[in-house]
């Protein structure tokens, strides 16, 4: 284990940024989101949750896939290069690190998404243990330990120092190139870990019971009469999907610039009425069907196809941000009793 005093943290950022592009939580116009570090940036590593997760760095909200241009009777095809810039992302919380494992299941399965794979290979993930989880957090329900946040390098804040420990070979190689670090002892982070464990015990959602809600629950839950009431006030705004670190749906669209056709992909939301619309129309015609799809996918269909892994990590973003205060916790509580019958 190594450490650096927090009053020298800018040196640490500079050292990392000298190695590769560095992304970390930055405060801008009152909101904290991952952004590229440069000297003088307003870094906020105390913010528990960025508004959007670090998912954008591996699966951007919008990206070009290919462009077409007519040259006489010929079509010229211009495919962008595979992303190859080495980068590091610092300040990833344990829930968001687990979310990357969910995304890996989707994008690294055959057929592999080569853009995502390139970014995963080029990115070093430096996680940060939580110090002050919020009442909306329920990561422990999914077996996530915020004191052991994983990634390529794990870090902890304690007693005015940032402690660092390599988790993977990639993380070890990255740390070896950073100069301003001092040697430290594992015992030095124990007070911080104990304080976090005590806070986790007090969180109101820590006992959310998912018993019976799993990959085998399709028959019991799909036809539940509760979906109508649960979805009644849903605005179909898609906020819950855009801020979710595990949501992975996208659309592919063409845009005519007047000189060429640019084909790009962009995040999409199963909460939208035109999501996966085909020539015959939308397969889910009502908001109740779309609402059900989102929660059945996270809690039933995904675990059914991924060795029991849920597609929710309990980050609590949707709990905090849904404008009608509807969320996966309320759905799980409402359907739990039915699932356990
Ligand atoms: S559940 Fe909430 S955040 Fe999600 S689409 Fe409905 S209203 Fe919007
Ligand atoms: S469903 Fe909600 S709590 Fe679960 S990972 Fe997505 S945003 Fe976080």
TrEMBL record:
Name of the protein in its database record: 4Fe-4S dicluster domain-containing protein
Listed InterPro entries: 4Fe4S_Fe-S-bd (IPR017896), 4Fe4S_Fe_S_CS (IPR017900), Helical_ferredxn (IPR009051)
PANTHER family from the UniProt entry: ANAEROBIC SULFITE REDUCTASE SUBUNIT A
Species: Christensenella massiliensis
Domain of life: Bacteria
SUPFAM superfamilies assigned: alpha-helical ferredoxin (SSF46548)
Alphabetical keyword list: Iron, Iron-sulfur, Metal-binding
Gene Ontology MF terms: iron-sulfur cluster binding; metal ion binding
Keyword Iron: yes
Domain spans labelled 4Fe-4S ferredoxin-type: 223-255, 301-334
